[in-house]
Design a protein that fits this description.
Layout lengths: L1 E8 L7 H10 L2 H8 L3 H12 L3 E5 L2 E5 L7 E7 H15 L6 H12 L2 E8 L6 H16 L2 E5 L3 E3 L9 E2 L2
Antiparallel strand pairs: 1-5, 1-6, 2-3, 3-4, 4-5, 6-7, 7-8
Helix pairs in contact: 2-3, 2-6
Length: about 170
């Protein structure tokens, strides 16, 4: 079973391993991890364990973020052209709930002008830990670079200019 963070970009971007490494090196991972883990101590232990094992590797068109010795990495891939158009059409037709107002309208407008979709895929267990932390940091970096919006786990939309304030939340 998998969980996704998706980034809908208005302009195409290149997935760059070096940029991703720099983003994770400068991000406030501690604060984000404290929001995901039950205690601050758990968050600190997880980050300490990950520090020595964190690596980002390109495998063809896909990038993998590894932070533990075993388990599923965060897998990042981008689609554009007809593949992106098909994915966006499916989201618009089948996956978004009905809704109107500033949030839903902004999301639908973004989808209508998106040219690329970047998927950050992780296991369900990873989505409840550092996978969510690393995925969120990288997704917002990609959204900022590609004039995009982030769809966190198919439940909440957010913009890179104000990550903490959801544009639209739905189950």
């Amino acid at each position: 079973m998998a969980e996704w963070i998706s980034v809908y970009c208005g302009s195409r971007i290149e997935l760059d391993v070096k940029d991703m490494r720099e983003e994770l090196a400068t991000a406030d991972l501690k604060t984000l991890a404290e929001a995901v883990f039950d205690t601050d101590e758990e968050a600190a232990r997880a980050l300490e364990s990950a520090a020595g094992q964190l690596r980002i590797e390109r495998h063809g068109a896909e990038i993998e973020v590894h932070w533990k010795s075993a388990g599923r990495p965060l897998q990042i891939r981008a689609v554009s052209g007809t593949a992106a158009e098909g994915d966006i059409a499916e989201v618009l037709a089948q996956r978004l709930p009905a809704g109107s107002g500033p949030g839903p309208d902004r999301v639908r407008a973004q989808l209508a002008r998106s040219r690329q979709v970047v998927y950050l895929e992780m296991g369900v267990n990873e989505a409840k830990g550092l996978g969510a932390v690393f995925g969120e940091v990288l997704a917002f970096r990609l959204a900022a670079a590609g004039d995009g919006l982030v769809w966190l786990f198919d439940r909440q939309w957010a913009a890179p200019d104000d990550r903490a304030v959801p544009i639209w939340s739905h189950a």
